[in-house]
Structures are given as C-alpha cells and as structure tokens.
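Listing 4. Sequential folding, example run.
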Amino acid sequence: MRFIPIMLILAGIFGGNLYVFYRLWHLMPYSLIGRFLFIVIACILISSPFISMGLGGHLPTGITSFLYKIGTSWLILFMYLLLFFLFCDLIRVTHLFPIEKFMYANGSGLGVILICACLLLGSGYYRYLHKDRVELTLPLNKTMTTQGELKIVAISDLHLGYSIGKEEFKGWVDLINQENPDLVLIAGDITDNNIKPLYEQDMAAVFKEIKSKYGTYAILGNHEYIADPVNASAFLESAGVTLLRDSVACVDHRFYIIGRDDRSNSQRKTMEALTASLDPSLPILLLDHQPYHLEEAEKYKIDFQFSGHTHNGQVWPINWVTQALFEKAHGYLKRRQPFLHKLRLRHLGREIPDRNPV
C-alpha cells in the first residue's frame, strides 16, 4: 500500500520539475548553445537526487557525493521556483497585471532569478555554518545516587556520508568535547542513505574521539533503515557507540537511558514494555527519533525525551507541515510541573528552544 503514495509523490516532483523548466525555457532568450546547455543542466538536476539516492551505493563515492549535493540543493530551489511561477501564472490568467512580457524571452528576468537563487543558497549555507549554541537547564524531581548536575550534549540527524564528510564531523566533535559533557546522546539519522562512505572515510575513528564521563549512547533513525539497519548497527558498534535498540541502559546506578527503535520498525517495543521493569525513583531519559505521541512519555513517567527527525521543516514553508504533523516540531516542550534537581542539556545546532514551554 505504501507503493502508491510514493509513486504519487515522485510523479508530483517530476511533473513539477517539467513545469518549472518549461517556464525557464520560455523565459530565456533564444540561443542554440544556450538551449543545449539548458537541456543538459535540466537533465542533471532532475535526475541527480534519484541517482544519488537510488544508485549511489554502486557508484564511486565522489560522484555520488557530487550528485547528492547538487540534487538536494536543487530540490530547495525547485520548490521556490515552483511557487514563484505558479504565482506568476495566477497573475497572468487573472489579468491582474500585464505580466506576460516578463515571462517570455526576458534575459533580465532570468538574470534576476539566477541572482536570487545564488543569494538563497548562499544565505542558507552561511546559516548552516554559523550554528547557535543553546543551553537548557532542566530540573528533575528525583535524587540521583550522586548529587550534582548531569551535563548532556544531545545531537541528532548528523546525516554523515555523502553530504557531511569526515573533516566537518571532526569540527562537530571538537565542539562537543569543549562542553566537557558527562554524557552524549545521539537521537538517530547518524548516516544518510548509505553506510559505505562512513567506512571509506574511517569516521569510526572520529566517533572514538568524543570524550565524556559516561560515554556515547545512540539510537537508529529512519535513515539507518534506508541505509540498512544491520550495517548501521555494526558501524556504530565499531565506532565505540553504545547502540540502544528497544533496550535500556542503567548508567552508573544513577539514571536510565531508554533507546527506542525507530517507527520504521513496525514491531518495535511499546513504551509500556520498555518501562515495566524500571525503578521509578531514578531519572529516566528517552531517545526516540521521531517525536510522535509525546503523551506516551508523560504517561510512563519519562523525565526527559530527546528526539530529532523534523529539522523544523528545514525551509519555509515546509516548517508549516512539520508544525501541523507534530505536537512540538521544534524546541523545548514541558508537559509536567517544574522539577527540583538539575539536568543540564547542551544542544549544538540552530534550533532555538521555546522559552515559554507549555
């Protein structure tokens, strides 16, 4: 049954691409060489996401990485161009403004679109490079066997591989180690669509450079299921990361970490099964990649849940979609009363928490 919606989505993307390139074709001034280059570029842009995701594992990593970066960048530009041209056609057919002369054989208009595209990608890349450091101090109403703060660095959706390489990952690990954490939590989607580039770049060695008192704990996300959960699990074990798949770790007799398998696994354990044997007097931390059904965490007395997956929609207006799908698609949500003892969370990323949680 999942085949039909997937095919509808792919047909929509392909049809949307044809419409965007149809509009760009008529916008550009006539030139035989220009038309030829346009067709070549259009074919590369349309096919690159599908080639990199579908056949990337059978191609040299460098080629797949190039196609992946081109394809994912184009998907963002495609969305905005689609919205722009639909708006222009709406004006054209309703005769609200004589816009036709700007939509056909207009080199200046095409130039403005190219400049706007460069500014959009450039500003997005700048924002990506300049991440915000967000610190949350979360009180707990339970006494741990050792008093004092528990400092956690929580990260998610690294998507290592074709887009994020070893050198960039090293920079992230340096930021983590600067925090001198007691514990590092990774909430899934560590790899992207294939585990191969992580082995080729020996990223396991970089994971082993993460320094914390109690180690690094991780769960699988939906992208590990795309890549192959068995290979992804084997890689994390070789990297010295404690992988929790529907299992619980009691750390230093101080607190629990529940690692729930991703929703991609239809047979994953229930929250009731995972919490049944736990001592409720100890703090309980939950890793669950996709933040669905947050009421379950409250029902089963989870003190802190960390999730990822949504990327806050990545770009506008997709953030409206994630906000509609999830109770809390971004930031910090408090469902229970203020607590007594402190757990400090360091989150490295651009997501700014809600300072007025509900």
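-- end of first protein; second protein begins --
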Amino acid sequence: MNDRAALELLVDLGPLTRTRLGELTGLSKPTASQLLGRLEAAGLVRGVGSVTGRPGPNAQLYEVNPSVAHVAALAVDEEGITAAVADITGTLLGEHHVRARALDEDVARRTGELVTEAVRGALAAAGLGTGDLHRTVIGTPGALDPRTRVLRYAPHLPGWQGPGVCEELAGRLGTPVVIENDVNLAAVAERHAGAARGEDDFVLAWIDEGVGAAVVLGGRPLRGATGGAGEIGYMPLPGAPLARGGPEATVAPDGGGGFQQLVGSPTVLRLAREAGLAAGSVHEALDAAARTPGAGDALFAELAERIATGLAAVVAVVDPGLVVLTGEVCRAGGERLRALVESRLDDLALPRPQLRLSTVEGRPVLVGALCTALADARDAVFDTA
C-alpha cells in the first residue's frame, strides 16, 4: 500500500524528494528511504537531478520511470481512426491518423489491419515498437454487449460488429484490448480533468451528429444489460419521429428518429437554413445566430427548448447532481445555449441539477481512452506485492 501510494504521488505531482514524499505519505524518513530503494531496484522509479539553493546538502529528486510501460488509445468514427501512445506518466509521445470511411466495403473488411496501421504509426512517431506496448483502449460509437461481445448501436461501423473483434485486435497488437463506448470515455475525461472533476454522480450529454449520454453513478459508467445505457439518441420525444425497427435498422446519420432527430447537427443546420442563416457547419450556424437579432434569438430558443426536453426525461429518471454538455452543438452554442437550456430545464424537471459546459481540451474521447488505459496499466505495473 505504501509503494502504491508513493507511486501515485510521483505520477500526480512529479519529481519529489525523499523528505517530501515522507511528509505526503506520513512515513518516517527511514521508511521512505527503504521504500524508494525498493522501487528504484524494481525499476519503477529513478533519480532525476536534485534540489539546490537551500541550506544543507542537495536533496535527490525521484520520479516514476516513464519507460516502465506504454499504452495506446484510439478514437474511431465514420471517417477514420486516430491513435495516440503515452508513457506510464501520461506524457503523450506520438499520434497517427488513418483516414478510412467506415461504410466503404473494403474498409469494413480491414478493421484489424487499419487499427494496426494506426497504432504502429503512433508507435513509430514515439520511437517505439509493438513490444513496448502494455495496454490498448479503443473508443467507438455504440457499445459492446457484455453477453455476446458484439458491438451494438453502431450500424455505421459495420467492420466492428463481429463477435471476435477484441480477440483479433489483441492478437495483432500483442496487448489486452478494451473497446469502450466513446461517450463513456468522454465522461472519463471530464471527470479526470474537466467540468466533472471529482464528481461521482453525473450525466454527460453528447450532442453532435450523433446524440448520446454517459450516466456515471458512484464513479462508474452505467452500462445496462446490453451495453446500451445512455443511448438517448433513440429516446422517443414529442415532435420527433419514432426510431422504429431497433438500433440496427438504419445507418442514417440522424438515427431515423427520437431525440437525435430533434437536436443532432444535421437538424441544427436545417433549422438555421429555415431561419435564413446560411452556414456550412454548426459553428457557423450558431455564430450567425448569435449575431442576428430576431431569427437568431428564435433559433437559440428553439434549440434550447428541444435539448431541455430531452434532458428533462433523463433527469427525471436518474436525478443527477450535475449534467455536462458537450459535442459540436453544445460547444458551438457556448454559454448562451447552456444558460437557455438551464432556464428551460428548471421549468420542465423537478430535480434541478447543475448544468456545465465541457472544459476538456482537445479530443475528449482520446483523452478518456488514455486515462482508462493508464489506469489499467498502472494497476498492473505498480503492483509490487
């Protein structure tokens, strides 16, 4: 326990002296010295310079040996695969993107090959080989059914829906492979370094071309019997056509009905055009709306009403203390949209959760995949028992 506590402190705080490590862990100087000697002999920590400019002899600084383990994180969507490689401290060492349209017939047959290409490209950028990798976490739309190990709720990723995808990828990469829902990983990123930092119970609403949610309870994502917890894009709501035929019935970007039909990116663009706001993207549409009194105000109000209606259904069931808004639509709408949604949600739902915008920088799915891979790797590598 002392070893693990010391290693976590060195990861979180960076290089520390023996004295400072003893203060933070509550260990005596002799015990802290023995601990560092044991970890250094195991190759888990190393000396890195010393503290100077203070009375007395210079104090040796220690850090986690970054080369102890490396992890890969991947984010998959309809347009391709992005891979990132980091060392055990979380330092990003290399990235690589493989462009591939998921619905192209040849792409659907080459899933394992494309993942391997992405990972090897990231490893090459980091100056590493496949033998240096210890864990791999992949974020995709949809979710693995825990009973069948088949990806569900993602008809637009046909190459990922075989029953042996994880096993095939693990064999190709030489590491354990975890496939996780992309919105769940975005929630991991938000809890690690974003608007939900330190929160054990919250809902993350992802409103983009696709619409989904992560429900985090007790610090863990709620998965459901088939892995489909949080697939709120299919949720039937007033004013939206029903998504009939189940989650595999359509490959249309709008999901064919439900909440996603009301608030997804294609709908926002359509509402903007109907309001006379010409735009080629959601960001352009809502920027134009923010500058256009009258029509722009009406667009923001309509969009906020629709988002709040969907969130009210979620809040009524889960009663979270916090809802985090993310995805292209929420980022483009910014604080103005958040405030309008909060106002409408207060009218529609008895529970009144806090409503915050995402503060994760970069690509949240990739950040969450890295966090998950690092946690798994540290559990294995830092176990000195």
